[in-house]
């Protein structure tokens, strides 16, 4: 009889799906990231047309130098975060949606690479970052499915190893880079080829991928959760203290170099060069004219100081502790990532919790929603007003120009967003990536 008894067991219940984030929290993430992008753009405005401090080592100079280096690093971190959000963020896409996302990212990468190279080829005085970003996106694609912890580890590895490779490249024979540039279409077109974008440019990918991986790591987290926001607001300042404070502390124990001989050499070189160029109108000289000048006055270059860093005869270990803007060394990378985390988490938290701030910061949020347009617009303005002015003289940079750029962009973005969803270049980017929907 026992064998005929049917045993009833309760069916195991499927795990309940995660609740979607509250509307305010989700909106706070979106507009918080937009506000962070706007701050990054305006910081780069300041770096390019704003004033420089007349002296160093003061609180005034410290405050004036804050945007330098950190704004572009914040932009790069946000780029990594945006890359992951396209692929689903904390809930990664799978199957066809993921394949479509990858194609969208690849198309964006190629377009940014082309747009950035074109802007450089136009002869702007600004070191354009867009071509670098295009390459960063392509380099990041193979890692898009990794977990937050793995991406964070990658950021640390790249942040330490990348600067060492850069320092090695600068202190060794660079003829191999010149050989690559000679056959690189990008280098021949714009002057910035693959070696510049990866190794010896202003934003070398071999180090700057640390920002991308860091941004991708926090993009894998649920930024709508208060606990995540608070955690980033602890990690961010800690990293900033480690980076900037660590560089300052270690620098105190490093032997200071005697720069008097080098300073004297530079002074002699500057005086000789000024005398040789006296009375000559060099503004419109061609490359051939400069080559002829260099050949005729080759002896002047013998006055330039000779040291290991310039002659490529030794690895400068002391430079690895630098944290100055665009030094691209580990301590600067850590400090900049810390600032980026703090700004991102702080704005997401504030705009998610305090609805009134969304009204007051609406112009800033509007600029951030069209950050590509805002960035390219200031390059075009600098090209027209300073690099190639119609009157042949150009305008003076400083507080006034920076303020005009900022106010004009705030007004334009706010007005544009009243009628259209995306910025002008954002619409073009959106239309260009529509073929990704055809991916099966």
From TrEMBL:
Transmembrane feature ranges: 71-89, 101-120, 126-144, 151-170, 197-218, 230-250, 333-352, 359-386, 398-416
Coiled coil, from the record: none
UniProt KW keywords: Membrane, Transmembrane, Transmembrane helix
Residue ranges of domain Heparan-alpha-glucosaminide N-acetyltransferase catalytic in the record: 29-225
Pfam families documented for this protein: DUF418, HGSNAT_cat
Residue ranges annotated for the DUF418 domain, each copy included: 331-434
Protein name stated in the entry: DUF418 domain-containing protein
Organism name: Glycomyces niveus
Source organism phylogeny: Bacteria, Bacillati, Actinomycetota, Actinomycetes, Glycomycetales
